[in-house]
Write a structure and sequence with these properties.
single chain; five-stranded mixed β-sheet
Amino acid sequence: MADDTRKKLRRVTTVYWVLLLYIIAALVWWFLSLMHQNTSMYQLQRQELGIIYQDTASVNYRQDLHNIEDQHRRNVTKYVGEGITFLLLTLVGALFVYRAVRRQFRLQRQQQNFIMAITHELKTPIAVSRLNLETLQKYQLDEPRRSKLLQMTLQETLRLDTLINNILIASQLDGRSYQLSNDELDFSHLTSDLVQQFSSRYPDRVIETGIEEDVDIRGDQMLLKLLISNLLENANKYSPRDQPIHLQLRSDGSRAALEVADHGPGIPPEEREHVFEKFYRLGNEQTRKAQGTGLGLYLCKKIAEDHNGTIAIEDNQPEGTKFIVHLPVNSNT
């Protein structure tokens, strides 16, 4: 599917350049034709003037010659001005069309990747949960194995719930149909609760925290929970299993700073702006091992901006990625 999209893009690009060169060639031909016509008319008018006036030193001859030369210069200025204007308009329009077409193809490719990813993301938790439940139904298992299967099923259902929430919230935020609340929130307590829930879901994952107390902000509790959850899920996805996830929350009096760091492969500097785009994911969807839909980080940026905040990416030392979210604190505290 990706190869087919690239072939279509190359085909459209080739046609685009052929048409652009043809338009420019036609514009140059039109300009040269007008200039040649103007020069021919100028020479013809001078010849006629020489026939009419035998005395080239007369005042009338000089006046008429001056008028002919002035008309010739005005035509040259007009044709040059029109030519430059049409050329600039053509180039600006061509650039706009070129960028719009490439943007459309990139969006189409990202949507195709999203469909492939969402198909896998929906089928996997359903299949795993069904298999676990069928196993529990058919076999009399000991308590540790039953607990393990139930825990796995719970993780998959929570993962499915997060996925559906991401899709619904992204659609509502894009359509401006979601009404953000502006409640007073204990961001420290909210973050601690989510870390505990995350640890319950992934008991084998070590998460090191440093959460400053009494960091109060104003915002939408559900969206902020989604922001923190997506950052934790992203770190869990890319960080090696034997490496911890680091979460820090602090305040400088005017802004709250939430940092989530992993020890994964990191994000190249040239990709850091793109990872916040909708449906964008690093690598090839057909060969990528990490799960995801390309909505998590897009939502993180959208939620941060809707709360008058920012999100940025830094390198985590010695390796990995650190996401830093800045949000304004509650001025009433």
